[in-house]
């Protein structure tokens, strides 16, 4: 069973929302996410889903990345992915929510700001159900792409690897990151933890065919 995961492929993390948390090229990953999903048996969506009452909110970018003192929201952020806003929406060209096989909404609680898709809290005690669902579906290969490489993609990949029981593949062409140095370190960290990194979905497709994985 091959599962493809679209991590936080939302307008908030793209140049479409310059006042939120725009990631350069974040709006360019749709075609690649769709290509990798076409190789999978099941498709998962994750979204940041934040409240205007979030306790980690600040007004300006200059106030970001400061410690909050909260156990499950480590640093401050400007408003992004507020439920019901334009930035909360998936990128155009991705499926509607109900067309996905499983969905994860992250950070709904005002005191929580998780990065990975597998747990609601930073201590990784409160499961989102994703790991359990993947086991129930008997996933053997999990393909990951989305936004941003150095935050939510990396954390999701590391959580999946820690859970074990499957291969985790990451599609470079389906990811975009925030800062060059942290992106470089994220790729190193994911590979060191056991992830297989592919350049694009075409390379993944060829690998699947050559190894008769489907």
TrEMBL record:
InterPro entries with a match to the protein in the record: Isochorismatase-like_dom (IPR000868), Isochorismatase-like_sf (IPR036380), Isochorismatase_Nicotinamidase (IPR052347)
Residues annotated as domain Isochorismatase-like: 76-199
Keywords linked to the UniProt accession: Hydrolase, Metal-binding, Pyridine nucleotide biosynthesis
UniProt keyword annotation of Transmembrane present: no
GO molecular function: metal ion binding; nicotinamidase activity
One record GO biological process: pyridine nucleotide biosynthetic process
Domain of life, per lineage: Bacteria
PANTHER family the UniProt entry points to: LD05707P, PYRAZINAMIDASE/NICOTINAMIDASE
Protein family membership: Belongs to the isochorismatase family.
Protein's name in the database: nicotinamidase
Gene source species: Neisseria lisongii
């Amino acid at each position: 069973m091959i599962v493809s995961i679209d991590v936080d492929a939302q307008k908030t993390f793209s140049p479409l929302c310059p006042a939120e948390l725009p990631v350069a090229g974040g709006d360019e990953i749709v075609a690649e996410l769709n290509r990798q999903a076409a190789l999978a048996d099941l498709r998962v969506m994750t979204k940041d889903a934040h409240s205007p009452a979030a306790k980690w909110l600040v007004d300006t970018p200059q106030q970001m990345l400061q410690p909050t003192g909260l156990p499950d929201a480590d640093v401050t952020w400007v408003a992004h992915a507020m439920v019901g806003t334009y930035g909360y929406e998936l990128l155009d060209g991705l499926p509607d929510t109900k067309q996905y096989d499983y969905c994860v909404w992250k950070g709904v609680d005002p005191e929580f700001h998780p990065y990975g898709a597998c747990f609601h809290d930073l201590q990784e005690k409160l499961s989102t159900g994703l790991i359990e669902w993947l086991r129930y579906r008997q996933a053997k290969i999990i393909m990951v792409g989305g936004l941003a490489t150095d935050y939510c993609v990396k954390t999701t990949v590391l959580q999946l690897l820690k859970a074990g029981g499957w291969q985790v593949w990451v599609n470079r062409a389906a990811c975009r990151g925030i800062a060059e140095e942290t992106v470089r370190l994220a790729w190193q960290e994911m590979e060191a933890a056991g992830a297989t990194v592919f350049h694009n979905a075409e390379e993944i497709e060829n690998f699947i065919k050559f190894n008769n994985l489907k």
